[in-house]
Write a structure and sequence with these properties.
- With 400 residues, the chain is of the alpha/beta class.
- The protein has 12 helices and 14 strands.
- α6 crosses α7.
- The chain is globular, with a radius of gyration of 20 Å.
Length: 400
């Protein structure tokens, strides 16, 4: 996912300063790097999730009897800057455990760094499949559901729609390309006569929404698969609504039910789209209620998906170190193989075969309630139910 320069706030450079004080022997330091200035809508809530989880863990006695600290840095939203920052976290801060990243191309660069430098890396948000498959390595694990997983979660609704002519809209970088590649392969397998009548792939942050809407109307598709997010999504939705681009067309859209991207649409939200997302206001499990109450009490605000991801990144690192009984790289790498973690979405596991977490996502439809966009008719899809088997993964992942 790349960066929108126009949206860079000056705040957020020094993040969670209280958690990054000079380390004594009684602390466990974890390096965290992310595109805080490049993607604030997701990552401002994400750093709040980190703060909440660190506070909870330290109040309960820390990890291995030591205080947990996250040393947080901005990665510049570019692969080159991210590798430099990762190197600084390892050499200057003295941590062999790092986590984070948002954009897929940045996550891939840090994945390569981790493999070369033999540093443990827990990828938080980058969704490209390559992190755990084609470019995967022994030292890298990933938390969030990948593009393959999220497309697979949408596929039952997509197949049930029985639409033949599809328009594809996606940002032209690793995340968007990966999502569309998966979509084409999965739908072709289920529906061999499908046609992809137009592909609109603008650079991230440079959407010409009018031209895209016109191209879609000219192609006369029955359905649209959208992968745009953030400000690009808002522009596309606004223009599509104006031109009736979505009228009488089935639309499936990745990530569009996440509060970070759905809430800014306000009354322009496209009712009826099938999406992956996070209906925080209607998840009634005990695990989620506990998280929601704690988050709202601390921040007087509702959580976004980023909040949950940041929270679970910390919980995962703490669980891995506890299982390892050490911060030694090799021991933590081994501990994450089959590691079980409790989360607001319920328990999940980090798979040994491809280092992918089985934490799932919610699939539902966009609707309006009291003038605000929400998700309805949603269900939680466990990541374990859509991932390929261990034998299939062997064909996708380099031998170690």
């Amino acid at each position: 996912m790349n960066t929108w320069k126009a949206l860079i706030p000056l705040a957020g450079v020094a993040i969670v300063a209280s958690l990054t004080t000079a380390s004594a022997q009684g602390t466990i330091k974890i390096g965290e790097l992310n595109s805080y200035k490049g993607a604030p809508a997701f990552l401002d809530p994400y750093k709040r999730g980190i703060e909440l989880a660190v506070e909870e863990i330290n109040a309960a006695g820390g990890v291995l009897g030591k205080k947990l600290e996250f040393v947080i840095r901005d990665d510049g939203a570019t692969p080159g800057d991210a590798v430099r920052v990762a190197e600084e976290l390892v050499t200057r801060e003295g941590t062999n455990l790092i986590a984070g990243t948002f954009f897929s191309n940045v996550g891939l660069a840090v994945t390569e760094f981790a493999g070369k430098k033999q540093v443990f890396f827990l990828a938080a948000e980058p969704l490209t499949d390559k992190i755990t498959w084609q470019n995967g390595n022994k030292f890298t694990y990933r938390l969030r559901s990948s593009t393959y997983m999220q497309v697979a979660m949408l596929m039952p609704d997509i197949v049930a729609a029985k639409k033949k002519r599809w328009a594809l809209v996606y940002p032209n970088f690793e995340y968007g390309q990966s999502a569309v590649e998966n979509f084409k392969a999965m739908l072709k397998k289920q529906q061999p006569d499908v046609e992809f009548v137009t592909e609109q792939a603008p650079p991230l942050g440079k959407v010409d929404a009018g031209a895209i809407a016109q191209a879609i109307d000219d192609a006369k598709p029955d359905a649209i698969f959208n992968v745009l997010f953030g400000p690009d999504l808002s522009k596309f939705v606004r223009e599509g609504n104006t031109r009736d681009t979505f009228k009488n067309r089935f639309v499936a859209s990745l990530l569009s039910g996440e509060p970070e991207y759905l809430d800014p649409l306000k009354d322009e939200a496209p009712v009826g789209w099938v999406v992956t997302g996070y209906p925080w206001y209607a998840i009634n499990t005990p695990e989620h209620k506990k998280f929601l109450d704690a988050y709202q009490k601390k921040f007087n605000d509702y959580p976004r998906l980023g909040s949950l991801v940041g929270y679970v990144i910390v919980k995962s690192m703490a669980a891995g170190i506890t299982k390892a009984g050490s911060t030694d790289t090799a021991k933590v790498v081994a501990a994450f193989n089959g590691l079980k973690v409790d989360s607001p979405f319920g328990p999940f596991t980090y798979r040994g075969s491809d280092h992918q977490a089985t934490m799932g996502a919610y699939v539902g439809k966009i609707a309006m309630k009291d003038g605000k966009p929400i998700m309805v008719d949603f269900k939680y899809v466990d990541g374990a139910d859509v991932l390929p088997s261990d034998d299939e993964v062997k064909k996708l992942r380099p031998a170690e």
